[in-house]
């Protein structure tokens, strides 16, 4: 009885399903998928359930996209070993910024996949592109850019641990423009102080 009460309390004060899914995603990836290069695309699958929908119960809620992107990033880190190298150098990773462009909704009960790819890095952050693609038609439903700030170590030092990480790829134009927009926003906030 006390175990059930404890479990109920945990579910009330924490999002227990989130932590279970993170562990499952990383462990399943490591056990059942081959290791990937940091420059390789990784893929996870999901389905839009009744817990993911908006108030009209027709398609995925905008907040769920961001949650699913978390799982895809953890999966990417687990398959590539990138996060392990960051930890070895005494660092960590935090989400610095993200931008999602919604192209078409993901309807309830439709399966989808999320492709995650490292597209560029500088000395302080790595940049990922993530795409939501519905399985039935292969349509890219949403595209996200993610800035993962690496703390307490140099990204270039981390990347040197990987043969394919010696040189960053060319910066995509859309990433360049997005980073400029972030800088404009930061300048505005600095002036407001």
In short:
With 193 residues, the protein is an alpha+beta fold. The protein contains six helices and five strands.
List keywords for this structure.
26% strand, 193 residues, alpha+beta, globular, five-stranded antiparallel β-sheet, 6 helices
Model description:
- This protein has 2 domains: 30 residues, no CATH class; 147 residues, Roll (Thiol Ester Dehydrase, Chain A), CATH 3.10.129.
- A 5-stranded antiparallel β-sheet has the order 1-3-4-5-2, with helices on both faces.
- The chain is 41% helix and 26% strand.
- The chain is an alpha+beta fold and 193 residues long.
CATH architecture of the largest domain: Roll
Which overall shape is indicated by the principal axes computed on the Cα atoms? globular
Q: Which strands sit side by side, in order, in the main sheet? A: 1-3-4-5-2
Q: Order of SSEs, N→C?
A: HHEHHEEEEHH
What CATH first level of the largest domain would be assigned? Alpha Beta
Q: What would you give as the CATH superfamily of the largest domain? A: Hotdog Thioesterase
The end-to-end span amounts to 53 Å
Give me the CATH fold name of the largest domain. Thiol Ester Dehydrase, Chain A
What is the oligomer described by this structure?
single chain
Q: List low-pLDDT spans.
A: none
List the helices and strands and how they pair.
Elements (H helix, E strand, L loop, with lengths): L1 H12 L2 H17 L9 E6 L14 H19 L1 H7 L3 E11 L8 E11 L3 E10 L5 E12 L3 H5 L13 H19 L2
Antiparallel strand pairs: 1-3, 2-5, 3-4, 4-5
């Amino acid at each position: 009885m006390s175990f059930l009460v404890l479990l109920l309390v945990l579910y009330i004060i924490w999002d227990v399903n989130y932590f279970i899914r993170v562990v499952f995603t990383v462990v399943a990836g490591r056990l059942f998928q081959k290791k990937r290069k940091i420059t390789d695309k990784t893929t996870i699958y999901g389905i839009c359930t009744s817990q993911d929908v908006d108030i009209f119960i027709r398609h995925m809620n905008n907040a769920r996209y961001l949650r699913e992107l978390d799982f895809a990033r953890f999966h990417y880190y687990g398959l590539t070993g990138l996060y392990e190298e960051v930890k070895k150098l005494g660092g960590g990773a935090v989400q610095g910024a993200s931008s999602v462009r919604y192209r078409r909704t993901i309807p309830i009960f439709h399966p989808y996949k999320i492709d995650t790819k490292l597209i560029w890095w500088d000395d302080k952050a790595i940049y990922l592109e993530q795409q939501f693609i519905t399985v039935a038609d292969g349509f890219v439903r949403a595209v996200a850019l993610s800035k993962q700030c690496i703390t307490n170590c140099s990204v270039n030092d981390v990347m040197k641990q990987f043969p394919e990480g010696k040189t960053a790829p060319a910066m995509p134009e859309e990433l360049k423009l997005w980073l400029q927009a972030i800088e404009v926003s930061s300048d505005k906030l600095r002036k407001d102080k």
